[in-house]
Amino acid sequence: MLLLNRTLIKMAKGLWGWILTITGLKLVTLVGMTYFVRTISAYLGNLDSPAMGPMETKSAVFSALIAALVMLAAELLTGEAEYRCTAKARQSLRTQIFSKTLELDVGNIEKIGPVSAITSSVDGVESMQIYYSEYLPGLFYCLIAPIYLFFQMYPYSHAAATVLFFVSITLMPINNVFRKHIEVLKTDYWNSLEDLTGYYLESVQGLSTLKLFNQDERRTEGLQKKSDDFNHKVMSMMMVNFRSFLLTDGLIYGAVTAAFLIACVQLGQGRISFSSALTVLMLAFGFFGSIRQLMGATHSALAGIAAAEKVADLLAIDTTRPYLPNTPAEKAPFPGISLRDISYAYEGRKASLSHIDMEIPRGKTTALVGLSGCGKSTAAGMLMKFFDPETGKIYLDGRDYTSFTPEELRKNIVMVPQTVNLFSGTLAENLRMAAPAASDEELIRVLSDVHLKGWLDEQPHGLNTDVGDAGGRLSGGQRQKVGIARALLCHTEYIIFDEATSSVDMESEREIWHCIGELATTKTLIIISHRLSTIRSADKIYVMSEGKVAGCGTHDTLIKKDGLYRKLVEEQNALENQEREDESDV
Length: 586
Prior knowledge:
With about 575 residues, this protein is an alpha/beta fold. About 65% of the residues lie in helices and about 10% in strands.
């Protein structure tokens, strides 16, 4: 039952006051209970005594009443303290987990996965908070209570006190045998819960796809199997818990019975008084209260410890970033962004970038093209400082990237990703993520820049229009335009468009590219696009292949060479011509 988890103890900052308060209140209740027992036993044992008069009766009743009120007050305060400790623990744990999650870069987010983050911050915290509000106070209380009761009972019956104390200290090692088995089951339980949660989440997110291919019934069967597996894990734990409680209760009631028999024998032999025998009997039932409380908290705390293992993996991720603010700037800085001998590989994969060199001139439009998986988006993520290069250097207007914090850097460069993420709430709230102090006039201006002003005028609530869950009330094209408008509110010099039109219809794509064309006159653009016809006018085009730069130049320069770029353009032209022929036939 001795569960001292390093991760949970490390995360207990700010909770120790409540933990010790709960322990202290439990001890107050114990002292009150002991005083109450001694008072009642003395009164009942002396009822037939000639010295027992009205004054003695009133004194006994008054003393018992005071003890009962103290116990009641302590119990009420214990409940309040446990509630406040629970609330504080939930807040503290979720803050630590969420803060750590926000520190993760793209590679580490992929490593832990969204399901692990959800189960850690929701189900995990619910299990872990019991460790602070119930288990640790119960453990401290359990270490003190049997010793206190032993010395309270010893003057009345040495033998009974010794038997009860001996059994109480043997219950911990006995329960540890069950605990080790439950620990394994708890880990299996937690893994099964995470698997079930992930499967259910995927099912909900992909419901339309499942319906489309008539796979919803098959998916339901899979969900049922995982639910049955999770239920089996729960029942296995309950069975071990039942056996543990059965053995423990047997020993407890056996010890209480033994103490009762000892007291009866000693009473019959005249070695103790009737009031002493009553004291032994009444204290015997309270002797194991602390043990039983700890046992109940132990089985609940095991789930928290299993969850803490997941949280420990999350907290152990190194999120430190190279930061050298005093790095001197280049003497002859390149006016723009330069990448020099950059290499990077995601964990467990081959290199995404291999010794690449690029120069992105300020005030110009630079495009990155190539086959899927060639490293374009990795280069864009590197420019955004989502992760750091394994080798090489990146410079912004002559300043080494390591001299910027990610927050400082992103005041100069922003990205419009392939899929823009919007959040539940209003249009204005989503836009003000980029500029919290932006006025309504500024929001309307950027929406006008991305050709959403006409749509906005049609909305009854204007900027307060609810975009729905994850922007579900907007079309794909509208979400992308809102993403561009949000980027414009950052007022950065550099804007990256990473396949910003790959998931929109043709009309929205034309409008977005028209908007991008207008931005090219005032901003420095880095464009990643699968539609090569849209980047013909770029000032510089980098052709990438297998993480390396396979070519560089303008469209006219590259098309004259018999290289990858020319091949890609010819293939895409042929495909587009075929599409136009098919449309004309229809």
